[in-house]
From TrEMBL:
Coiled coil: none annotated. InterPro entries: GntR_C, TF_FadR/GntR_C, Tscrpt_reg_HTH_GntR, WH-like_DNA-bd_sf, WH_DNA-bd_sf. Keywords: DNA-binding, Transcription, Transcription regulation. It comes from Streptosporangium becharense. This is DNA-binding GntR family transcriptional regulator.
Amino acid sequence: MTLPLHPVSAVGALADALRRRVLSGEIAAGTPLPEQELSARYGVARPTVREALAVLVHEGLLKRERHRSAQVVEVTVTDLDDLMFVRRPLEDLMAGALAGRRVAEADAALTRMAALPGDAPWSDVVAEHMALHQALIVAVGSPRLERLYGMLAVETRLGLVRLREVYTDRNVLVAEHRELLDAIGRGPAPAARQAVAAHLEHGWGE
């Protein structure tokens, strides 16, 4: 049975457009997003803008204070250091649990990343990057590990925006993640854990 397709709402379309701009680094951290300017730029009513911004505030990509425009959340170097302090043991648990296994969903995300056109927005790279790491965590089969990792997703996504300047050649990013998945797939556990640790030490942690 084929389910009917529902058109994307104006709120959803605007939220998606703004999300892509944030995660591609086009809208820098701390940049205010005045409702009136967005309304004029996208040709939508201010209530639509307000709802779209509320979606991104709920996702943690934007923050909003009373009587001020919403703005992109800033993840500082200190934030990233603390993020990695928490991520390392979670990723280590994942590596030990999955050593010697291939995770089809992670391989699929890597394939999609490699197939992105050269002019694809960085937000598409971020999406597949997140999908790959999330697939590995989910494959462990621990709801608590998945829940803890999910709590870090927003800061991880925002942190990945910085990597667009490190990986000007996307093939390098793809190759590094292929090596990571191969190391986990080969095992044994100590080698897989070492590969994951080295992977997280590269750049700011990806």
